[in-house]
Design goal:
Elements: H1 6-10, E1 15-16, E2 19-20, H2 26-29, H3 32-41, H4 47-58, H5 78-81, H6 95-103, H7 110-120, E3 123-126, E4 129-132, H8 150-181, H9 186-189, H10 192-206, H11 229-240, H12 258-275, H13 279-307, H14 349-369, H15 371-381, H16 394-402, H17 405-408, H18 412-415, H19 434-437, H20 441-445, H21 452-458
Antiparallel strand pairs: 1-2, 3-4
Helix pairs in contact: 3-8, 6-14, 7-8, 8-10, 8-13, 8-14, 10-12, 11-13, 12-13, 13-14, 13-16, 14-15, 15-16
Length: 481
């Protein structure tokens, strides 16, 4: 199993994916190797390998963890220890983490319980986060000959790789803010600790596998993606043709997702704020990073919801999919040239597992904005109900998110239209219209409301937020220290 050697690790400088970090982040940036090890163990998607992954995750048995893990703090139990800060006496929980724990019934361990249930193939219920991982219930079909445990593998590795990563990042940022609140100005009495935790969060977001420039493998002409949210953003922008500075490309694996450019800029700004001890500004950056990290999760949710829907069978010229509510023609681009498979919707366990995993990342944020919207989306994608068994209502999923883009701090253009490797937009998957939805930059400046057609369309999908005032501008206002 090929892993980064100590010598390769030492060759890296203060740059990660082009972001210069002033502090020593070695204890953080190599944690992606733990995720890589877990994924490599389960890589053939067979149930025996899935069981080995379970032993690695829980550190069961003398041979369950490789020797190289001894060089890293927490060893193989790192994933199972997340969050490593924020639940002890006197420690605080970030607002970002709280969105997820509140969705899961005020459960601080929801992510670990989800993983435990998937590894154990048993039902799971915590607040609004419900799934039935009973064997042959969650992923019963697997009709195309993939590994017998591929669905279970996907709901584990994508949640540990992305949701766990998000939680740990949010909590490290919170720790950095708390350190700054204790009173420090770098030029006078030092803010080194606050800067270390903040930049540790940045290192976790990027991961060591991306290299100094974020283009590992460029010399060989091949992109070697990492295992963190940074890599996810670069993958999803290609599915939606939003890569690069022009935000309209999927041609190269080496084009950076604009959301990554934004997030690394926010991390850089947060470091400068930490240097000055400006914890209120650090809080602003924390909120923006949290919001932008949801973009590739929403894109991933759309990608697999579409595959699990009947949209590919849409009749030429039809506005409605076989499972959809009427959709505004301006937001739809039917493509009758797409071949219709033997089944109108995917039954692949892999795709049902991926849909569920991305929904674990995206739906709690949607719930924080609108309980009604999340109530429409989660049952479509939760394991053991619709996804993989019957057509997912893609239009319902898409509209529920679109109508809450402003609260989610994103836009139609930022999410984009789903191409998923095709030259044309997938049936029914053209993005919404920011000008009509009130999510254009001009609309934000003027507090512009949705125009009449969209207002009527969105009425069922907006309502009481799961987090108090989460859908109001003042939620993002930070009182000056």
């Amino acid at each position: 199993m090929a892993l980064a050697s100590a010598s390769a690790v030492e060759a890296q400088t203060g740059f990660m994916a082009g972001l210069y970090l002033r502090t020593d982040v070695d204890d953080y940036k190599f944690k992606d190797l733990v995720q890589k090890e877990l994924e490599d163990i389960m890589g053939d998607e067979e149930c025996d390998s899935f069981e080995l992954g379970r032993k690695f995750y829980f550190k069961l048995g003398a041979n369950s963890n490789p020797s190289w893990l001894a060089d890293f703090p927490d060893g193989g139990q790192y994933l199972a220890s997340i969050p490593t800060w924020g639940l002890g006496n006197g420690e605080t929980k970030s607002a970002s983490f709280n969105e997820y724990t509140a969705f899961a019934g005020k459960n601080n361990a929801f992510h670990k319980q989800w993983t435990n249930a998937a590894f154990g193939k048993k039902p799971y219920a915590s607040g609004s986060l419900v799934a039935d991982f009973t064997n042959a219930t969650a992923f019963p079909f697997d009709p195309f000959g993939a590994g017998q445990c591929v669905g279970f593998e996907e709901v584990v590795k994508k949640v540990t790789g992305y949701v766990y990563n998000f939680i740990e990042i949010s909590q490290l940022q919170e720790r950095a803010i708390e350190e700054a609140k204790d009173g420090c100005i770098a030029q006078q009495n030092g803010c080194q600790t606050a800067m270390e935790y903040w930049e540790g969060a940045a290192a976790l977001y990027i991961g060591s596998l991306e290299g100094e420039e974020g283009n590992e493998g460029l010399s060989a002409g091949e992109r070697s993606y990492g295992k963190t949210n940074y890599a996810l953003a670069d993958k999803r922008c290609r599915n939606f043709k939003t890569c690069g500075p022009t935000r309209d490309s999927d041609d190269s694996k080496f084009l950076t997702a604009p959301v990554n450019t934004k997030i690394l800029s926010f991390f850089a700004g947060g470091t400068q704020a930490a240097f000055a001890g400006d914890y209120a500004l650090m809080r602003d950056y924390q909120k923006m990073i949290s919001a932008k990290m949801a973009v590739p999760w929403i894109q991933g949710t759309y990608r697999y919801a579409w595959r699990l829907s009947s949209e590919r069978a849409r009749i030429s010229g039809s506005i409605n999919s076989p499972t959809s509510d009427p959709q505004d023609p301006d937001t739809d681009l039917p493509d009758p040239t797409l071949a219709v498979p033997d089944t109108e919707y995917s039954q692949l366990d892999k795709e049902a597992g991926e849909a569920a995993a991305f929904a674990v990342g995206s739906v709690p944020k949607l719930w924080a904005c609108s309980k009604k919207a999340a109530g429409f989306v989660w049952p479509q994608l939760q394991p053991g109900v619709i996804a993989g068994r019957a057509p997912v209502n893609f239009q319902l999923v898409k509209t529920a998110f679109e109508c809450n883009y402003k609260c989610l701090m994103t836009s139609c253009d930022e999410i984009g239209s789903l191409y998923d490797g095709d030259a044309v937009i997938r049936n029914g998957a053209k993005t919404c219209n920011d000008a009509k939805l009130g999510t254009s930059p001009a609309g934000y400046k003027k507090c512009q409301k949705s125009k009449a057609p969209f207002k009527a369309k969105c009425k069922p999908y907006v309502g009481k937020p799961g987090i108090k005032k989460r859908d109001k501008p003042e939620f993002f206002a930070e009182e000056l220290p």
